[in-house]
Each structure stands twice: as structure tokens, then as C-alpha cells.
UniProtKB/TrEMBL annotation, chain B:
Name of the molecule in the record: Small ribosomal subunit protein mS29
Cellular component, GO annotation: mitochondrial small ribosomal subunit
Keyword list, A-Z: Mitochondrion, Ribonucleoprotein, Ribosomal protein, Transit peptide
One record GO biological process: apoptotic process
Species for this entry: Cherax quadricarinatus (Australian red claw crayfish)
Stated family: Belongs to the mitochondrion-specific ribosomal protein mS29 family.
Predominant localisation class: mitochondrion
Subcellular location(s) of the protein: Mitochondrion
Length: 325, 401
């Protein structure tokens, strides 16, 4: 049997199948022999392998793609109907050419198509101002009118100085609850508490960084109890205790030293003694206003902090004092 | 004068490469040729000098000009300290000691002239950032004070006694006090060299007897210079001699026999809490226990007359933990404030435009900046930008050019 090249495996299997189905015992023969057997022609001898017959390219089925939704949206559409609830970002529905993310080198910022970063972050497309307005309008019928007499912020502060806030959470998971709902925050302005100097100083030392000097507000956060009601009671308990302790004066408080003072006090300070020495050695009497100015300037230098303005005021005052100005 | 080395500036300057008008010689050569074609032939840049070498006669019209401190006066006044080391080497290179006349020094001199000596001593405290010119302003003021016949009690750089002392021994006379034998000798020599002429004319005498040892006694009524010379010859007693000298000078000044000027560079070091000296129990000694510190601190009080205190507060004079700000109240701490209040703080700031012009002209005149691009407008702006008009930084930059 001549063994020639050109017999492809496919052909081989076809032959065998054919042979098997026909129940004919065949020895392996070449393609030409097979053809000859079929057609009963003179067998052609093919010395060279047949050229590779190029199969036609696989034609991809073109699907009818629907254009993205935003192309069909009208300009004056009601956006609240397009995006009624919180939803992961969907680029085809949003008519905005949004870009998000750090660009690869030499590239522009990635666009919205398949942008994982845009999809990960929360978007507020369901809460555009017109939608919010609509929701507020819908809620209005369930509201009672705002009580009279507390329209302005000053009146609110006067009648309701304490502000308590807490958050509630609702989950649609196997548990409805959220642990964070137990946190209660109490906020009160120190102006509403009638504290004298000593009381205020003592309270500030007790609360430390819970007091905000810019707004003069004390903020107490309680989360140590499991229920928010318990935390609420605890907040008010703390406020009561703080106030009462600040009003009291303990017997050991008289041991407060110069280094413990929260602000500079002129009376009894070495600066006062030095000033006195200068006044005494001055043959012409030092004017009252120069002394008062010096006192004020030294107090400011310490209480307000040292910087160029306070320092230059100090300089001018000392020059007047020693007669150089 | 600040001691910090701004290595970063060196680094950035050497990285400048071709864009600098000063570094690339080739580029500058081309530019120089272009300038000489375009502009008028190069004008020789000279330092703006003044012949008024007496600080007492200098006025605001001489601001920004350079005056010469004669070699012999410089040696007499600052031979043993006072002029910052780097500036001293620069002066040696230039073969002259010239100082720029700047506002803070002139203001202080003006105030000193107008001081009411019947009041407790006026305290002028120079403050400013590092490298801004406080020490050199003090040099200028010290020159004025010595010309104006003030007896100088000059402390060149106080932190050297707290941090870089040569030797510390326990005091033989007072338990709990500590002496600086060698440093005290150097200071007494410095005091003698500065005030020798004045001490001869004033003929100050001791008011009480000082017994140094079984054999060495200084009687009451002896000339003050004797104590100084004893201290110089006997290092063991030098610190106590300083104590005696300062006490005597205070009494003399109060009785109007002389006027005393205390000049201290880095006065805030007197009020630091630790020194570098370790005791037997391994704690660091508080510098208030140093004899010489106590000696000079009594001159910072208010209980004497006929004197003036001119000092500088420097953040580098403090220990490393207390260097955040350059403002005097912060650097002096509670104790320093209580001692020195009321004082007159005088700000020393970076060079302004006039002074920048002046310093670059001076360097070009002294052939320190030899690159023709240095005196050009671009070069000047580049120097101003690199140093941000800080005198010390500018000096360091120009050193490498």
C-alpha cells in the first residue's frame, strides 16, 4: 500500500465511517483510490499534496443592537420616572458624558461605559431637586404646622437649648436592626448654662475636647448602652453631673498654681512688679493711660498668643513706658 | 548668626543644570557677548560704601551701605569671640571687615542714644528667623557702644557655655554651684581686651575685700583690673572673679561712676532647663547652677541703673525641643519673661530689595561672585529666589559660586 501524504485526519475518519456503515472491509487506501472505487475511474496518482483549501471565514451573526436608552430620551423628560429609586449607575440610561477614574499614562479619564468606579460609588440620581421637591410636596399633607413663637434660630436656642440627635436604620436583610441606632448625641451651647468663671473653667477641664471653642458648644456622645433610650438617659445624666460638679468648689482647688492657670492674670505677676520698679524710679510721673495700656498689652500677649501684631503693640507700649516713643 | 547648613540648597543648586544663568559658563559666555553687543559696555560694579566708620554718626541715609570696621578695632573688640566664624573667614578672604548698615541696628543705636539712664536698664531684644543677621547687628551695636564709651560686658555666644563648654568643675566656694575654669579665663581676657582703655581712665575700685585662698586676697579699694588679671592667671578662681566683677560693676553703675552695656548673643540660653553636664546621679545639670550664668543673670535684673542690655534671642540657642517659633516670648520661656520683662523686641528680617542689591554689589566688588551673570538682573533675581533673601543662605550659596 502506498503511503502518500495528503490524507487529512477528517478524511480518514470519513473513510472509516463510510466503510463501517457499508460493512465493507477496506484496507486504508488513498483518496484517489477511494474515488476510483466510487466512480470506477482510472485512479489518478497524486504525487503532490493538494493545496490547502481555504474554508470560508466564519460569518459572525450580526445581532440587531438596540441603541442605548439615552439616545431615545427627550430633553424635557421627567427624570424622576427614569430613575425612581437608588440604583447602581447604568451608563446607557444616564444622558451625561460622565468620566471617572485615574487615567492610564497617555490616556484620558475613563468614560462611563463599563466604568467599575462609577458603579461602585453611590450616586444620587434618584434625588434630583425636582424629585425632592415632589416628595416634599407629597409628605406635606402628613405634617403639622411649625409651632409659633420659635421661628428664628435665636428663639429656638432660647427655648430649646439642648439638641439631641440619633439615627434610625432599616435593613432589608435577615435582620432589620442596626447597632448604630443606639448612638445618641447631645449638643448644648454653654451660653445656656448659667456658669460663672470658675464653673466654666472647671467644666471645660472636665469635658476636654468635647467642647468646640469656635461655636462654644458642648457635645456629648453616648453609645455604651445597648438601647438608645438608655443612652439618651445617660446623656442627660452626664449633663446634670457636669453642671453640678462645675458649680461646686472642692477644698483642694485653692492649690491651683500659676502654671495651672488657663489664662494670664496680671495681678501679682512679676510683670506688675517690674512695672512698679520703673514707675518708682521715674522722676516724672508715668501717665495712667500708659500703665493701663502696658497692662492690657501684656495680658493680650499671653492670652491671645504671641504673633507680630501683639508683639508690636507690646513694643510700642514699652517704648512709651521707658520714654523712648 | 545661625549655624545651620542648608545642604538642600546646595543640592538643588547643583541640579540646576543649564537653566541657571550662573552655572553654565558656555551659555553665559554667549549671553555675555550678546549683552555686550546690545547694551553699553559692562559697567564695573562697586560695593556701595560709606566712609562714615563711626556707628554713632550713621543715619538712615546710609542704609544699605557698607562701612569698614578697622582691623585693630575688630581684633580688640572681637578677638576672642563676637563675630560669627563663617563671617570671620569671609572677612579674612576679603581682607577687610565690612558690615552692612541695616535698619534694626540703626534703630537700636538710636534708642540707646535716647535712653533715660535713671530708669532700670532698657532691654533691647533682637529677634528673627535663623540666619537673618541678628549676631552681626549685635556686632554693629557693640562697635557703637565701645565708641560711645560704654563699659562692655559682652557675651559672644552664650550657648557655648551651656552646650560646648571646655570643662566644668564643682565650685570650691559655694556648694551646689559649678564653675567653668577655662571658659571664664577666656571671657576675662575678652573683657580686658574690650575695656582696657576705659578701665584705665575710669579707675574703678573694688568695694569689698575678696579672699580667694589663704594667700590670695584682693583688698577693698584695689583697682578692678586686679580681679580681672587674677582671674586670667588663676583659672581656678576665674568664675568667681567674673561673679565679683559683675557685682562690682553693677554697684559702680548704680552709683553713676560708669555706664554699662550688657551685650548677649543667644540670651534665651540662660533660661533653658538642661545643660550638657552630667552629674554623678546621671541627671543633666540645670544651667542656673553655673557660676558664670548666675553672674550675668544678676545684670538682667531691674535693680541697677545707668545701664542697657542688648541681646538676641535665637531659636538655635535653645534646646532642640523648644525651637518651633522664633518669637521672643516663646523662646524665653516663663522664667526668661519674668526676668527680662519689660523689654523692647526689635525684629530683624531678611534682606529687602535695597539690601539685596547692596550685598550682590559687594560680593561682585570683592570678586567673590566672578560670573558676569551674577550682577545681571536675571542673576540677581535668581540669587534672591534661591536664598529667599535670607542673608545666611545667600552667603552659603555664593560660597560655592
Amino acid at each position: 500500500m502506498l503511503k502518500l501524504g495528503g490524507v487529512t485526519p477528517r478524511l480518514y475518519s470519513q473513510v472509516l465511517r463510510l466503510a463501517a456503515s457499508c460493512n465493507i472491509h477496506t484496507t486504508l487506501s488513498t483518496f484517489s483510490e477511494l474515488k476510483a472505487e466510487e466512480n470506477e475511474e482510472f485512479r489518478t496518482l497524486e504525487l503532490r499534496s493538494k493545496k490547502f483549501v481555504r474554508q470560508p471565514a466564519r460569518v459572525m451573526k450580526s445581532h440587531n443592537v438596540v441603541p442605548p436608552r439615552y439616545k431615545r430620551q427627550k430633553v424635557d423628560q421627567d427624570w424622576g420616572n427614569v430613575w425612581p429609586a437608588a440604583r447602581t449607575f447604568h451608563p446607557a440610561s444616564v444622558p451625561l458624558p460622565v468620566r471617572q477614574g485615574y487615567p492610564a499614562s497617555g490616556q484620558v479619564t475613563p468614560d462611563k461605559w463599563g466604568n467599575a468606579e462609577l458603579m461602585k460609588i453611590p450616586n444620587f440620581l434618584h434625588l434630583t431637586p425636582p424629585v425632592i421637591k415632589r416628595q416634599c410636596e407629597a409628605l406635606k399633607k402628613f405634617c403639622t404646622p411649625w409651632p409659633s413663637g420659635i421661628e428664628t434660630a435665636a428663639e429656638q436656642e432660647k427655648y430649646f437649648p439642648v439638641m439631641v440627635s440619633k439615627s434610625t436604620y432599616l435593613h432589608s436583610s435577615p435582620t432589620l436592626r442596626d447597632q448604630k441606632a443606639r448612638i445618641v448625641t447631645l449638643r448644648v451651647s454653654l451660653k445656656s448654662l448659667d456658669l460663672d468663671d470658675h464653673g466654666r473653667d472647671k467644666l471645660l477641664r472636665l469635658v476636654k475636647n468635647r467642647h468646640d471653642p469656635t461655636t462654644d458648644c458642648l457635645t456629648i456622645v453616648a453609645d455604651r448602652c445597648p438601647l438608645s433610650q438608655q443612652n439618651y438617659d445617660y446623656c442627660f445624666y452626664l449633663l446634670t453631673v457636669l453642671y453640678n460638679e462645675s458649680m461646686k468648689t472642692e477644698p483642694w482647688e485653692h492649690e491651683k498654681e500659676v502654671a495651672d492657670r488657663e489664662r494670664y492674670i496680671w495681678e501679682g505677676s512679676p510683670s506688675q512688679a517690674a512695672l512698679q520698679a520703673i514707675i518708682d524710679s521715674n522722676e516724672d510721673s508715668t501717665p495712667e493711660e500708659v500703665i493701663e495700656e502696658y497692662k492690657k498689652v501684656v495680658i493680650d500677649l499671653h492670652n491671645e498668643g504671641e504673633d507680630e501684631p501683639t508683639l508690636s503693640r507690646y513694643r510700642d507700649s514699652v517704648m512709651k513706658l521707658v520714654g523712648l516713643a | 548668626m545661625a549655624r545651620l547648613l542648608s545642604r538642600n540648597i546646595f543640592q538643588s543648586f547643583s541640579d540646576f543644570g543649564g537653566c541657571s544663568a550662573l552655572v553654565r559658563n558656555v551659555a553665559v559666555g554667549r549671553e555675555a557677548r550678546w549683552w555686550s553687543n546690545e547694551a553699553s559696555p559692562a559697567v564695573k560694579v562697586t560695593a556701595p560704601r560709606t566712609s562714615l566708620n563711626q556707628p554713632g554718626l550713621q543715619t538712615e541715609e546710609q542704609l544699605g551701605l557698607w562701612y569698614t570696621l578697622e582691623q585693630d578695632i575688630a581684633k580688640q573688640l572681637f578677638g576672642l569671640g563676637g563675630i560669627p566664624k563663617q563671617f570671620a573667614t569671609q572677612c579674612k578672604t576679603f581682607a577687610e571687615t565690612c558690615l552692612m548698615i541695616r535698619k534694626p541696628a540703626l534703630t537700636t543705636i538710636d534708642y540707646i542714644k535716647k535712653t533715660n539712664l535713671a530708669l532700670p536698664p532698657n532691654k533691647f531684644i533682637l529677634y528673627g528667623r535663623e540666619g537673618v543677621g541678628k549676631s552681626l547687628s549685635l556686632v554693629h551695636i557693640t562697635h557703637f557702644l565701645s565708641q560711645d564709651n560704654w563699659l562692655l560686658v559682652h557675651i559672644p555666644w552664650a550657648p557655648r557655655w551651656r552646650r560646648g563648654f571646655k570643662e566644668i568643675t564643682a565650685s570650691a566656694t559655694v556648694p551646689g554651684r559649678y564653675d567653668h575654669p577655662l571658659d571664664a579665663v577666656i571671657w576675662l581676657q575678652h573683657f580686658k581686651s574690650q575695656n582696657s582703655q576705659l578701665l584705665k581712665t575710669l579707675q574703678l575700685e573694688t568695694s569689698e575685700e575678696y579672699k580667694w585662698s589663704r594667700r590670695e586676697v584682693t583688698e577693698a579699694g584695689a583697682p578692678l583690673i586686679d580681679i580681672v588679671e587674677l582671674g586670667i592667671s588663676r583659672a581656678r578662681f576665674a568664675s568667681d572673679c567674673i561673679m565679683a566683677v559683675t557685682t562690682e560693676l553693677k554697684k559702680h553703675a548704680t552709683h553713676q561712676r560708669c555706664k554699662i552695656a550688657v551685650v548677649a548673643d543667644g540670651i534665651n540660653t540662660f533660661f533653658c532647663l538642661t545643660s550638657r553636664y552630667r552629674l554623678e546621679d546621671l541627671t543633666y545639670l540645670n544651667p542656673e547652677n553655673f557660676t558664670i550664668f548666675q553672674a550675668f543673670m544678676q545684670l538682667f535684673n531691674n535693680n541697677w541703673r545707668n545701664g542697657v542690655v542688648v541681646a538676641s534671642v535665637d531659636s538655635l540657642a535653645n534646646d532642640g525641643a523648644r525651637r518651633e517659633s522664633y518669637l521672643p516670648r516663646y523662646l524665653l520661656r516663663q522664667k526668661g519673661w519674668e526676668t527680662l520683662d519689660p523689654f523692647i523686641p526689635i525684629l530683624v528680617s531678611n534682606y529687602n530689595e535695597l539690601e539685596m542689591q547692596s550685598i550682590v554689589d559687594y560680593y561682585v566688588d570683592r570678586n567673590w561672585l566672578q560670573n558676569p551673570g551674577a550682577s545681571s538682573d536675571t542673576g540677581r533675581r535668581e540669587l534672591a529666589g534661591l536664598s529667599s533673601c535670607n542673608p545666611y543662605t545667600l552667603m552659603n550659596i555664593c560660597n560655592s559660586l
